[in-house]
Structures are given as structure tokens and as C-alpha cells.
Write a structure and sequence with these properties.
CATH class: Alpha Beta
Bound molecules: S-adenosylmethionine
Number of helices: 12
Helix content: 40-55%
CATH topology: Rossmann fold
Radius of gyration: 23 Å
Number of domains: 1
Distance between the termini: 59 Å
Shape: globular
Length: about 325
């Protein structure tokens, strides 16, 4: 069992070894470009943004340098934040004014409630060791977003990894396993447990084409030549160019979900509706009546005795 402490130590070490390089948090730089590019599509002028699990801030700087936003980068690794702050000193005054970094844990955020327009997590939730902690983190994000605020969840998902491995199996490549410090998102379970907090607005499979090209085609060619596949191969480079505008298939574990915070008032109304339903749903017949009344309020209702037939005439 990987403890949070071991995972945190791993990230501290990455920062110590690789400093401000983007490689500290992602070995595949074309994939990194793709995730940044896709997240940026949702940023808008004037937005107050939190980038949680920001690492050494490489992506945070990209967001801030190409958009008129105010952004705070947060990470539980003191070493990562040290690197981010070091890099901040090399930026111009304007940039320094709009960016801040601080140490913090996504499962216990100590930030102003309902303050942010946008919260980003880019491969941060996958470093938590259980579904419960991932749900806890989403709850923390809910608290700091303003009503109708946007949560950009860019995380690796279990189902797409399975799909990718099925393709690899077909071309006789070994399975890609999750890294020891990762727990990919179980999309169905996580969204089910947080559906009262966020409405899913968009799901972007931005990495699917890239994964097929890099992990299947490039991987297979390298294997046939007895080599280790290279992240900076020509196939990957071209796949990255094409991937900018492709959103197909389910073979890329890394996905971007655009989630809109459901305001507290709306949630309360939903709860009331649920309570109302529970009271009125005494039998299948009354359930049928409920729906019929809702859709055809002015009609007289006749029931068939046999509910299996289910027709309201
Ligand atoms: C894969 S890296 C991604 C970094 C950055 N978002 C990027 O796009 O390059 C994951 C980062 O999440 C941070 N992290 C992991 N668990 C965290 C937690 N509980 N709270 C805050 N940061 C966390 C790690 O320290 C690491 O810097």
C-alpha cells in the first residue's frame, strides 16, 4: 500500500532532481503541450484561477502568460513550490503580480470559500490513494469555487487505459500499468459520488489519437526494431499536431472534464424534489401517475390494471 508520504517524497525528489524542467512532472512533452492547450481553451479574461497540484508551475506559467488571468498554484510538495517560486523571480513584473504559489494539500484546502472562477487539477487527483480521497478533493474544490464556477479536471481514467491495453494486446505489446503512485479515476464511480456537486458540461478525449499513434504504432515499430519507444519520435510529433483538433475514441487515458458547480440553492431544490418524490412514490401506480401528471397536467388519467403493460390510456 502506497502511503501519501511516500508519494509526496517521490514528488519532492522529482523537483530536487529536475528543478524547473517540465520533465519533473511529465516525461512526454508532446502530451504535456496537448493538455495545456486543451485546458487553455476554457480560460477567459479576468478569471481568478486556482491550479491545484501545480508541481513546479510549468503549466501554471503557460496559463498565465497566454491569458489575462490571476492564478494561484498550490502543491503539497514544498520542493515543487520552491522551484515554482524560483521561476517566478525570473518573470516580468506584470506576470509576478498575477501569479502566486503556495504549499497546500488538495484534501484540506485552506482557501477563501466561493472565491475562484476556475479550478484546474492536472493529473493531481490520480496521486491520491483512494476513491474516498478523490471524492474528498472534489468536495474541497466545490467549496472554493464560486456558484456556477468551472472545474477543469484533467486526469487519467481507468477505462481508457483498459481500452488502450486491448489494442496493445492485439499487436502483441505488453500491458501499460499505472505507475506505483497513481490511482486513475474510475469515471463512473467518481462522477456518481459527486453528481450533486457538479454538472458535466464537456468531456474532451484530447489524448486518444495521440495515445494510439504513440503507444500503439510508435510502440510497435520500436519493439520490432528492438528499441525502447522514444517520447520525441517523429510519429509522436506528427500525432501531436493532428491531436489539436481531434476528439475521438476512448483510447487516451488522459481526459479533460469541464464541470460546472451546481449552486447551493439549486442543490437544495433538487433535494426537496427528491424528498417530495420519496413521499409520493408509494407504489408503481402512483409513480406512473406522478410522471403522467407532470407531462399531461390537463388530461384525465385511466390506468390499466396490469402495470407491466405500462400504458396510460
Ligand atoms: C503529475 S504532477 C502534475 C503537475 C502539474 N499539474 C503539471 O501539469 O505538470 C502531480 C502533482 O500533484 C501534486 N500532488 C499530489 N498530491 C497532492 C495533494 N494531495 N495536494 C496537493 N498537491 C498534490 C504533486 O506534488 C505533483 O506536483
Amino acid at each position: 500500500m502506497n502511503t501519501i508520504n511516500e508519494i509526496k517524497k517521490y514528488w519532492d525528489k522529482q523537483a530536487e532532481t529536475l528543478g524547473t524542467s517540465p520533465l519533473a512532472t511529465m516525461p512526454d512533452l508532446y502530451l504535456k503541450e496537448l493538455e495545456i492547450e486543451n485546458i487553455q481553451k476554457f480560460l477567459f479574461d479576468g478569471a481568478i484561477v486556482a491550479d491545484i497540484g501545480c508541481g513546479n508551475g510549468f503549466s501554471t506559467f503557460q496559463y498565465a502568460l497566454h491569458n489575462r488571468i490571476t492564478i494561484i498554484g498550490i502543491d503539497y510538495s514544498e520542493e515543487m513550490i520552491k522551484q515554482a517560486k524560483k521561476q517566478l523571480l525570473n518573470q516580468n513584473i506584470d506576470c509576478q503580480r498575477n501569479i502566486e504559489f503556495c504549499v497546500g494539500d488538495i484534501t484540506k484546502l485552506n482557501l477563501k470559500p466561493e472565491y475562484f472562477d476556475i479550478v484546474i487539477t492536472n493529473r493531481c487527483l490520480i496521486n491520491l490513494t483512494s476513491l474516498e480521497d478523490q471524492v474528498l478533493a472534489v468536495n474541497e474544490i466545490y467549496k472554493i469555487l464560486r456558484p456556477n464556477g468551472l472545474y477543469l479536471m484533467c486526469e487519467d481514467c481507468q477505462q481508457e487505459l483498459k481500452n488502450l491495453n486491448l489494442l496493445r494486446y492485439k499487436v502483441e505489446l505488453p500491458e501499460i500499468k499505472m505507475r506505483w503512485h497513481n490511482l486513475y479515476i474510475d469515471e463512473e464511480k467518481l462522477f456518481n459520488l459527486t453528481k450533486c456537486l457538479f454538472k458535466r458540461d464537456q468531456t474532451i478525449n484530447f489524448s486518444s489519437f495521440y495515445y494510439v499513434a504513440s503507444r500503439i504504432i510508435n510502440g510497435k515499430i520500436a519493439a520490432e526494431q528492438g528499441e525502447t519507444p522514444k517520447y520525441d519520435s517523429d510519429i509522436n510529433r506528427i500525432a501531436r499536431m493532428i491531436s489539436s483538433d481531434t476528439n475521438f475514441g476512448g483510447y487516451g487515458p488522459l481526459k479533460l472534464f469541464a464541470l460546472v458547480k451546481i449552486a447551493e440553492r439549486e442543490r437544495e431544490r433538487e433535494r426537496e424534489r427528491e424528498r417530495g418524490k420519496i413521499k409520493s412514490y408509494k407504489s408503481a401506480k402512483s409513480l406512473q401517475k406522478f410522471y403522467y401528471k407532470k407531462h399531461f397536467p390537463n388530461k384525465v388519467i385511466y390506468y390499466q390494471n396490469n402495470l407491466k403493460g405500462g400504458n396510460l390510456l
